[in-house]
Fold this sequence. Notes:
four-stranded mixed β-sheet, four-stranded antiparallel β-sheet, 13 strands, 44% helix, binds uracil, binds calcium ion
Amino acid sequence: MRFVDIIEKKRDGLELTTEEIRYFIKEYTEDRIPDYQVSALLMAIYFQGLNEREIADLTKAMVESGDQIDLSAIHGIKVDKHSTGGVGDTTTLVLGPLVAALDVPIAKMSGRGLGHTGGTIDKLESIAGFHVELTNEEFIRLVNDNKLAVVGQSGNLTPADKKLYALRDVTATVNSIPLIASSIMSKKIAAGADCIVLDVKTGAGAFMKSIEDARKLAEAMVTIGKNVGRNTIAVISDMSQPLGFAIGNALEVQEAIDTLNGDGPEDLTELCLTLGSQMVFLANKADSIEEARELLKDAIQSGKALEKLKAFIASQGGDPSVVDQPEKLPKAKYQIELLAKEAGWIESMVADEIGTAAMHLGAGRETKESIIDLSVGIVLIKKIGDQVKQGEPILVIHANSEDVEDVKELLYHTIKISPQPVAAPKLIHEIIN
Length: 433
Ligand code: URA
Ligand code: CA
């Protein structure tokens, strides 16, 4: 097989065979095809697309390019959740304990990664003593005993995706629905879950700016799931502004505790109930989505979800007393309000721009080597649609330096105030299954 022929076929809009796709992924993973040829193929895919069969073959080939996690020793149906690019998205911290409280096993493998705030692991590490260095045996035992464990990414999962994603990043080919769908699904499938619930974000600041694109991506991923035998459901949710109020590591842990206590932000609570009820239903712990939702609400009201969080923290070496005494979490030295320069209604606060401001405070990593400050971040007071008076605080900056002028400038730039009333954005757009 000659790789140039594969490029030519896709350039001309023809369908690639299973063998050609497998050859591409295997040879590229093993460094036998140069980046310049793969760049050309990626650009051809960007313009010509891939059909359903090609996408499934590409996903399977990427899954098979590295290790696959075997979760078969865990009892019950394993459900995983994935969100595509949220900002201040505290859902994982809430959903783990909430869904596990209904005996759905959650075996979460998580990375640190780059971004506006740390990953789930960084956030959890703001709890004193909490660690994610578990052997495979410990991880499986904790999930069987407690229904919930989080482990740091180990092994060599989907190396093909790592190489391709890096190349896409520098060849302007990230934004292709077949490539995004196969990239995300390959990682979820290699991580071993039986069922997958996807939270596809849409709106200014999300990957998929329009609902139409978000729907296409969601449909592509749900179809991959069907084609590889992993039941998959996608929820399309709003990310035109950050979810909840908190953006930052310890701040989001605090927000997750509040939410599991029944005192969380309305949007975060609603999205967690929506995603959680899909997870509980897929795991066969309820006969309908409505029943699943009621069970989740009961778990919050009865305190079962909060108890699960405490047990989870303790089982991984953390101090569970933070749940009742969140003042034990790392706290930034300065709390600085951002005041409205004019009166009106909040019209926009673009999620990823608010996230960038949080990153400037030190909440996220700009490079792999950056050290993150778990205490800093932003807590919103107002959200889109809320009325503000001139001089009223819109949000609070949590910083370890008094000089936050550059951060304020970023925030004033993205927060627009309208003289006319503005409607709050719709949170849940669609559910695709
Ligand atoms: N996230 C991924 O993991 N892959 C993509 O291609 C895009 C977003
Ligand atoms: Ca949040």
